[in-house]
From TrEMBL:
One of the Pfam families matching this protein, by short name: FAD_binding_5
GO MF, one example: FAD binding
Residue ranges that the Swiss-Prot or TrEMBL entry lists as coiled coil: none
SUPFAM superfamilies: CO dehydrogenase flavoprotein C-terminal domain-like, FAD-binding/transporter-associated domain-like
Source organism, top-level taxon: Bacteria
Gene3D superfamilies: 3.30.465.10, CO dehydrogenase flavoprotein, C-terminal domain (3.30.390.50)
Domain FAD-binding PCMH-type per the UniProt entry, residue ranges: 1-173
Native organism: Chroogloeocystis siderophila 5.2 s.c.1
Protein name: Carbon monoxide dehydrogenase
C-alpha cells in the first residue's frame, strides 16, 4: 500500500546520526505491517537496513538474534543439534504466514508490533529471552521478554528507542519444546498460543502464553504439573478477566482452550 502522507524517508548509516526524533516518526524494518494498511499518523520513516542488524550469533552463552534478522534466515540457520529450544523459533516462523511475508518480515518487527497473536512473543517468553534496547542518544538497556509488551500494540519502548537484539540463554536452548496453536480456520486468527519448555534435567516447566491474553504471559512450575495444578495456576496467575473477549472467541472459551493446550503440550515430553 502506498503511504501518501509520508513526507520524509531516511536511510541513515548508523544510529547516532538519527537526531531530533519527533511525533510521526517510525522505524522501518521489513515493512510487512507498515505497508499493509494506511498509517495516517506517520510522516517520517527511518529505515534500519543500513545498520546491518540481521546477525545470528551462536556463542557459549547462547543465541543472539539481530532485530532486523529476516525470519526465513532464522528458519534456515544451522544451529547446534542439541539446541532443541530453537524449534520454538522455527514454529514461530512457520505459523506466522506465507513465504511472501516470512521472506521480508523481521523477527524484531514481529515482536515490536506487539499484537496479542504474535507468534514470536510467547516463544521468547518460554525461552526466557532478553531484549537489548538502543536509543540514538542514550545507553543501551535490557528488558526481559515477559516485561516488554505492556498492552495491545504497546511496549516499553520510548520515543526514538529501537530493539537492537534478542538474547536467549544457552540453558533454555537445551530444553524440550512444544508449540500449540488454535485459530479460526476460515481466517487464521489465533485464539490461543501455548509454547511449553521442559527441562529434562530438573523437570521444570515454563509456559509462554499468547493470543488468549493481550500481552504474553509466563506460567512456571518446578515439576510437570497435573491438570488440576494447571487450572489453579491459570486462575491464580492469569485472572479470568485477563483473557481476551472479542468476535473471535469468548474469554471463557479462550481460558478453556488454553488449559487444554497446556495439558496437551505436556504429552509431548
Amino acid at each position: 500500500m502506498d503511504l501518501h502522507n509520508i513526507q520524509t524517508y531516511l536511510r541513515p548509516q548508523n544510529l547516532e546520526t538519527v537526531v531530533n526524533w519527533s511525533q510521526g516518526w517510525s522505524w522501518l524494518a521489513g515493512g510487512t505491517w507498515v505497508f499493509s494498511q494506511s498509517q495516517p499518523d506517520l510522516r517520517v520513516l527511518v529505515d534500519l537496513e543500513k545498520f546491518d542488524w540481521s546477525e545470528i550469533e551462536v556463542t557459549t552463552e547462547g543465541l543472539v538474534i539481530g532485530a532486523t534478522c529476516i525470519m526465513t534466515k532464522l528458519r534456515q540457520w544451522n544451529f547446534p543439534e542439541h539446541w532443541t529450544g530453537v524449534k520454538a523459533l522455527f514454529r514461530a516462523v512457520d505459523e506466522l504466514a506465507s513465504f511472501k511475508v516470512t521472506n521480508m518480515a523481521t523477527v524484531g518487527g514481529n515482536i515490536c508490533l506487539a499484537i496479542p497473536a504474535s507468534t514470536f512473543a510467547p516463544a521468547m517468553v518460554a525461552l526466557d529471552a532478553k531484549y537489548e534496547i538502543w536509543h540514538p542518544q542514550a545507553a543501551p538497556r535490557f528488558v526481559a521478554a515477559k516485561d516488554f509488551q505492556t498492552g495491545v500494540q504497546q511496549t516499553v519502548l520510548q520515543p526514538g528507542e529501537v530493539l537492537r537484539r534478542i538474547s536467549i540463554p544457552q540453558e533454555s536452548l537445551t530444553w524440550h519444546i512444544s508449540y500449540q496453536r488454535v485459530c479460526i480456520a476460515t481466517a487464521g486468527i489465533a485464539i490461543s498460543i501455548v509454547v511449553a519448555a521442559y527441562n529434562p534435567q530438573t523437570s521444570q516447566v515454563r509456559f509462554g502464553l499468547g493470543a488468549c491474553v493481550p500481552t504474553p504471559r509466563v506460567v512456571e512450575f518446578s515439576h510437570i504439573p497435573t491438570l488440576d495444578e494447571i487450572g489453579e495456576a491459570l486462575n491464580a496467575q492469569v485472572l479470568s478477566n485477563d483473557f481476551i473477549e472479542d468476535y473471535a472467541a469468548s474469554a471463557a472459551y479462550r481460558q478453556h482452550i488454553t488449559k487444554v493446550l497446556m495439558r496437551r503440550s505436556l504429552l509431548e515430553f
